[in-house]
Amino acid sequence: MTSNMTCIFCRIISNQIPARILHQNDRAVALLDAFPLSIGHALVIPKIHYSKLQDLDIDSTGSVFSLVRKICAVLERAVNVNSTTVAVHNGVEAGQEIPHVHVHIVPRTKFDGAGPIHTMFKKRPAMNADQLDVIYGNIKNLL
């Protein structure tokens, strides 16, 4: 397995740093976040060091999101909530602080003050249909 020993998540996976491991499978680990945003905030990380989501191999992708699905269901019951926010900060500009792919699973309540993703963006673009069509075409051409 490829790892980066300057990476805190790689060091957790190699047992150099203790963590509250919730569950794991062949390619991913779920653990409680050491600095939780809410009670039960968990992370799911691939065992192999990848910086961004699009860098993951297909098997790691499946293992990570299979574990995310499992942890969401259990976590909601364990901390008695009906909802979770599942988030990936994919790159520095997106808020990724540790350059190892990690999926946040944050238990949510109606009055936790966090709001939906749309509240994060104070400067939303005003785009007309023609501009949307250009972006749509660029994406479709690259697929």
CATH class: Alpha Beta
CATH topology assignment? HIT family, subunit A
Helix/strand structural class = alpha+beta
Total beta strand runs = 5
Shape: globular
Q: Estimate the helix proportion, in percent.
A: 25-40%
Largest sheet: 5 strands, antiparallel
CATH architecture grouping? 2-Layer Sandwich
Strand order of the largest sheet: 1-2-3-5-4
Output the number of helix runs. 3
Topology order in helix (H) and strand (E) letters: HEEEHEEH
Number of domains: 1
Q: Stretches where pLDDT falls below 50 for ≥5 residues?
A: none
Q: How much of the residues is beta strand, in percent?
A: 15-25%
- Separation of the first and last Cα atoms: 30 Å
Radius of gyration in whole Å, from Cα?
A: 17 Å
Average pLDDT taken over every residue: 95
CATH H-tier superfamily? HIT-like
Describe the structure.
- There is one protein chain.
- The protein has 143 residues and is of the alpha+beta class.
- The chain has a single domain (8-142), classed as HIT family, subunit A.
- The protein has three helices and five strands, in the order αβββαββα.
- The chain has helices at 8-13, 58-78, 129-142, and strands at 21-24, 28-32, 42-46, 83-88, 103-108.
- It has a five-stranded antiparallel sheet with strand order 1-2-3-5-4, covered by helices on one side.
- The longest helix is centred in the middle third of the chain and has 21 residues, at 58-78.
- The radius of gyration is 17 Å and the shape is globular.
